Amino acid sequence: VTTFIGPSPAVVGAALSGRARQLFPSRVRAVAEFLSGHPGVAWVSYPGLPDSPERARAERYLPRGPGGVVTFGVRGGREAGRRLIEACELCSHLANVGDAKTLIIHPASTTHRRLDEEGLVAAGVGEDMVRVSVGLETLEDIVWDLERAIAAATR
User: Fold this and answer.
1) Structure pTM?
2) What are the tens digits of pLDDT across the range 47-88?
3) Which helix (H) or strand (E) holds 146?
4) Strand partners, 103
C-alpha cells in the first residue's frame, strides 16, 4: 500500500499519479468520441473534439487540454436522463466535478428539477443534458458503464 504523508508523496504513488495526469486529456477525449458515435446520444459538447465550435479557443487558452467534463444529450429527454443515471454502476451520481472518480449528473432531474421547461431553457439546461466528469478509472471501465447505462435509458 502506498500512502501520501506530508509534503512528499511516496515514489511509486507520485509516479502513478503523474502518469494518470499525463494520460487524462486523451482519456477524456476518448470518452467524448465514444459518446459522439453512440446512437443513444443526440449531441456532445466537449472543446477537445475536432468539430467543436470551441476547439480553437480551447487550444489557445487551455494548452494542457480542455478539462475533464463532457456534456451530452441522451435521446429520450428527461425520463431517459433519469434512467441513465439510475443504471450507472461505476459512475457516481454527484453534482460536483473534478474528483478522482468519474461523476455523472442529469441536471433536469436533480439540481434543476424544480424548473419548468421555460426555466430550464433560461438556465441553459436541456431536458436531455447529462454531464460526466471523467475520473481516473480505466477508460474501458468508464465506457463500459456509459454504454450499459445509455442502452438501459434508451430502450
Assistant:
1) 0.80
2) 999 998 898 898 899 888 888 999 999 999 989 999 999 999
3) helix 139-153
4) 92, 133
DSSP designation for 127? T
N-term to C-term CA, the chain:
43
**What is the per-residue pLDDT for 133?**
93
Separation of alpha carbons 78 and 130, rounded Å:
10
State how far the Cα of 145 lies from the Cα of 29, in Å rounded to an integer: 16
Residue 55's nearest CA partner among 41, 45, 70, 42 is 45
Report how far apart, in Å, the C-alpha atoms of 133 and of each of 69, 70, 72 are: 4, 7, 12
Count how many residues are written for the chain.
155
Residue 128 identity: D
Q: Given CA atoms 47, 65, 38, 111 in this order, what sign does their dihedral have? A: negative
Residue 20 has pLDDT above 60, yes or no: no
What is the residue type of 22?
A: Q
